[in-house]
């Protein structure tokens, strides 16, 4: 290799290292304003590459911004995110932090849930603990197949998890036939396409007032709930449902799949279907602050392009009427 070739190669390597090390915004954990709407607190996630370990890295840092003076007031240090961290979400008031971590012991994955108040761990449990946990493993972040949301008053946490399954026991050691559980060889259909971990979903609530985890009952068994937003009523939320039958297809990036909107009262275990499974795809509902019985969502047509223009729709939960706020332009 000539001296010129060596310089070109060295320059190419340094250029690649420089640009590969540039962080990219991958997610925003929370974005909240103070009571006077003058201070904005943002906690984003960034992704970058470790070219020594040849792996992706994720880190977070917090920013405090003055909306009145348009100045950045505070920037925290970089905090690397542990690979065992499944979920992390601060409450809207900034006082609580919900964490879900995973540990592997032998061939078994153990999931732990922690609720922090400032620097104090006020509640935690193991998902496999049948006395406390009514659900299976908590699903990782996915914009289409899972949610993990604090209520606006920071008193409830709603999330999706797998159904609780009986641990596999031998026929000779089980006291009852019902205790044997399903064999590990039984096939369980998943959603595929980067969602192989997603099979079934149950919707659960953590109530901070009584420090208890509750499975919301009466959930339709033939539906999969993948998106959620709280309403102005602390007992209600709006959810997006996908049909599991006659077969499952990938959900990620497929914004041309028929969906339906539901309203759920978690305290009364009541589910109300707001829309039918028609020729429309309804995604990403967001409730309007200080507006009772109204929320907005994005609407697209079924069976057309995956990435198509969408309509912004205003929905009234009392009258079940939809109003186009911004129409699509083909």
UniProtKB/TrEMBL annotation:
Domain Acylamino-acid-releasing enzyme N-terminal: 80-265
Pfam family for this entry, one: APEH_N
Entry-linked Gene3D superfamilies: Dipeptidylpeptidase IV, N-terminal domain (2.140.10.30)
Keywords for the protein's UniProt record, in alphabetical order: Hydrolase
Highest taxon, organism lineage: Eukaryota
InterPro entries assigned: AARE_N
GO molecular function, one term: serine-type endopeptidase activity
Entry annotated with the keyword Transport: no
Keyword presence, Hydrolase: yes
Family: Belongs to the peptidase S9C family.
Protein name: Acylamino-acid-releasing enzyme N-terminal domain-containing protein
Organism expressing this protein natively: Rotaria sordida
């Amino acid at each position: 290799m000539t001296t010129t070739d060596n310089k070109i190669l060295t320059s190419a390597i340094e250029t690649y290292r420089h640009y590969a090390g540039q962080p990219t915004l991958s997610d925003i954990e929370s974005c909240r304003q103070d009571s006077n709407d003058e201070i904005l607190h943002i906690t984003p996630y960034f992704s970058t590459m470790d070219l020594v370990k040849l792996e992706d890295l994720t880190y977070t840092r917090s920013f405090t911004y003055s909306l009145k003076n348009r100045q950045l007031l505070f920037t925290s240090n970089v905090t690397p995110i542990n690979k065992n961290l499944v979920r992390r979400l601060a409450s809207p008031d900034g006082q609580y932090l919900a964490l879900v971590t995973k540990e592997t012991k032998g061939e078994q994955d153990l999931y732990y849930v922690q609720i922090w108040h400032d620097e104090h761990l006020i509640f935690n449990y193991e998902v496999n603990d049948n006395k406390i946990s009514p659900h299976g493993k908590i699903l990782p972040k996915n914009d289409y197949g899972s949610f993990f949301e604090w209520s606006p008053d920071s008193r409830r946490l709603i999330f999706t998890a797998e159904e609780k399954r009986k641990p596999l026991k031998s026929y000779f050691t089980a006291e009852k036939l019902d205790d044997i559980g399903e064999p590990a060889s039984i096939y369980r259909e998943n959603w595929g396409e980067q969602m192989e971990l997603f099979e079934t979903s149950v919707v659960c609530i953590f109530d901070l007032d009584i420090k208890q985890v509750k499975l919301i009952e009466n959930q339709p068994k033939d539906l999969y709930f993948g998106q959620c937003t709280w309403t102005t009523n602390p007992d209600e939320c709006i959810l997006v449902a996908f049909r599991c039958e006659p077969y499952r297809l990938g959900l990620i990036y497929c914004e041309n799949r028929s969906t339906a909107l539901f309203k759920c009262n978690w305290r009364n275990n009541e589910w109300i279907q707001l829309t039918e499974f028609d020729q429309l795809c309804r995604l990403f509902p967001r409730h309007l602050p200080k507006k009772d019985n109204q929320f907005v969502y994005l609407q697209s047509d079924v069976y057309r392009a995956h990435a198509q223009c969408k309509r912004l729709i205003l929905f009234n939960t009392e009258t079940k009427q939809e109003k186009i706020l911004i129409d699509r332009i083909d």
